[in-house]
Amino acid sequence: MLPALLGSAGLLLAAPAQGQIALDPNLNFENWVQRNTAVAAGVEAPQNWQTFDDLLSVLAESQLPLTTATTTKTIEDQNGTFAVKIENKAYAPLQSLIPVLSGVASLGNGIKFSTTGDEFTGIPCTSRPTQLQFYYQLTGPAAARDSAAVFFALTRNVSGETEDVTFFGVLLPPAANYTLVSLPIRYTNNITPDSLHLTFTSGNARRPTAGTTLLVDNITLVTSTATPTRSPALAAAVSIYPNPSPDGRYVLNATEPVLLAAPLTVLDATGRVVRREPAPSAAPTRTLDMSDLAKGIYTLQLATAKGLITKRLVVQ
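The structure assignment produced for this chain is given below.
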């Protein structure tokens, strides 16, 4: 079903993100809906994402008697309210044929089969992002052997045939805590895509083991082509206390609450992204907890609607 990986690629900590592509197809897994298309009794599923229930139902050409429960909602989020939990599990109706199923979460609202082997429809996209970023956590006694993975593709329909603009798959190593990953997106052509495909799976091994669990949250597609606007007056509207901080905890204050209702990024001295938070509701103050980071100098970026605000942070 999912293409097997011939080898693993290295995971890269994020380089500074210059801009974000606003697709907003529930990339933070905050929105969940009740669906009864795949499972007769209905099941809660992430909006704009397909699961193994959906895939199995299409293959069987009928509704399933039970959910596989391989893709579920969890409150073990990185930032926000919910994240997606993708698990390897035994499924009673198929256990004699397939002892353990791997969980899947694939972006899009449908599944199709074609001569090119595409299974998940993806979402419309005409941008060419330069990085795929997300937080993940991977645990379980056989997490390394089960080969959890992420697959990314941009495609274009040409005369009824699907052509790859870019494609890659990366194995995810075990991670006991949420880990920020940034994967470079490389192109060998100048084709403008029309669709984006993104799939996470808890197991790409031939015989997955029950108990391997992959949590994913706060996915971001970034591009380095955007030119941020910096304004000294805008930066002066936001203050941070204490700075330096003895424990890595800060309180941000703003003369305009809307300035704090913006995506937040923290870079270390080498330019790597070490913290990324989505935009909260507008408020005059906002907290930032960097107590888990090493002592040193960091750069805070707030991507507001009025421009990019940059501040230096010191953890003593």
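Interim note for the steering committee: The two ends are 50 Å apart (CA to CA). Confidence is low (pLDDT under 50) at residues 1-18.
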